[in-house]
Amino acid sequence: MSRRVKELLIEDVGSRLKGVKDIVVVDASKLDGVTANKLRLSMRKKKISALGVRNKLSRVALKNIGMTSLDPLLEGPSTLVWGGEDIVALSKEIAQWAKEIEPLQIKGGTTEGATLTKETVDELAKSPGRKELIGQIVAAMLSPGAQLAGALLGPGRKLASQIEKISEKEESAKEEAAAAPAAT
User: Terminus of the chain with fewer CB atoms < 10 Å: N or C?
Assistant: First the structure.
């Protein structure tokens, strides 16, 4: 490749990755064409992008945008994968595909400038996503209020139930008393 073509590739890679904070690096070199296309189409539906570029060009492009945390992972065949809601959603998607497609191997990743190992990416894939965490936080915040409301309403329900039973007994007693003189 000529120097000018390399510069254009570096600019293109840099422009695609500018502003991206979460990237997972995979080795997709052993995938056949049909499987690779199936993987890319599935990821595209989930707004996840994949880019296979020579490691040296990737390093220079990433360095130009201030992201050097992937340097240790860019050894051997590498594909950069980014997108999705957050690093957890991205990790879950890639881990799911890595389980389904044996030749696809996770090498690691980066989030917020921190390098992630393969094991860390696997752990992130098992953790709850952003929406799930928000749901758990909301449930935790509402739980004491629900318990308090239940505690306050519990004795009131018991009292209302007892009053209703007494009222029903008095009504049935009045009906029996009214029916008893009429029968005689």
Answer: C
